[in-house]
Automatic annotation (TrEMBL):
Gene encoding the protein: pth
Name of this protein: Peptidyl-tRNA hydrolase
Reactions catalysed, as given in the entry: an N-acyl-L-alpha-aminoacyl-tRNA + H2O = an N-acyl-L-amino acid + a tRNA + H(+)
Taxonomic source organism: Pedococcus dokdonensis
GO CC aspect terms: cytoplasm
InterPro entries: Pept_tRNA_hydro, Pept_tRNA_hydro_CS, Pept_tRNA_hydro_sf
Pfam families: Pept_tRNA_hydro (PF01195)
Enzyme Commission code: 3.1.1.29
Length: 200
């Protein structure tokens, strides 16, 4: 990986207040947290997204982290690929500097996992991005939301708001996921995996 060039951290979700509190929107929530840490808010960008430029994280030794664009597509989840590709073109971002933050059913609620490439696990946002870019070889911050209870359909589960107990834990989850995204950028995915995949 080269030492220059802009990073792009994209949080997935669906647009509008109806979906804002959904489990499916946790990626967008994390990116809003990253923008807040950078002292800014997302603003409308012509690439069918909201975006902001921040210094992300802190480098080992205490210096501010590198420049990064943090963004949330303003399209629906299953059309995320177009805005992501447009943002990468506009900001000249290489695929090895794309970090996608998304909800993950196959990870226990409250856990954060990281990977580069691999399958989409039925996630329509990831499927759209892989299709638009012609590669699956981007970095992912996978935010665990757990499996639906009983016989609830997974599609219904992800499009519901976090429950009362989950909402109490949500600030911690968003903080952990934002920390993970920062660490991927500042120290690389292997260091981040060692930190976030290790038993507490």
């Amino acid at each position: 990986m080269s030492d220059d060039g802009t990073w792009l951290v994209v949080g997935l979700g669906n647009p509008g207040p109806r979906y804002a509190g959904n489990r499916h929107n946790v990626g967008a929530m994390v990116v809003n947290e990253l923008a807040a840490r950078g002292g800014t808010k997302l603003t409308t960008h012509k690439a069918r997204a909201s975006a902001a430029t921040v210094r992300i994280g802190t480098l080992p030794g205490g210096a501010p982290g590198p420049a990064a664009v943090v963004a949330v597509p303003s399209s629906y989840m299953n059309e995320s690929g177009g805005p992501v590709k447009a943002l990468m073109t506009f900001f000249s971002v290489a695929v090895d500097r794309l970090v996608v933050v998304h909800d993950e059913l196959d990870i226990p609620a409250g856990d954060v996992r990281l990977k580069k490439g691999g399958g989409e696990g039925g996630h329509n946002g990831l499927r759209s991005i892989s299709s638009a870019l012609g590669t699956k070889d981007y970095l992912r911050v996978r935010v665990g939301i757990g499996r639906p209870p009983g016989r609830m359909d997974a599609a219904d589960f992800v499009l519901r708001d976090f429950g009362t107990a989950e909402r109490k834990e949500l600030p911690f989850l968003l903080g952990d996921a934002a920390d993970a995204a920062e660490m991927v950028v500042t120290e690389g995915i292997l260091h981040a995996q060692q930190r976030f995949h290790s038993p507490a």
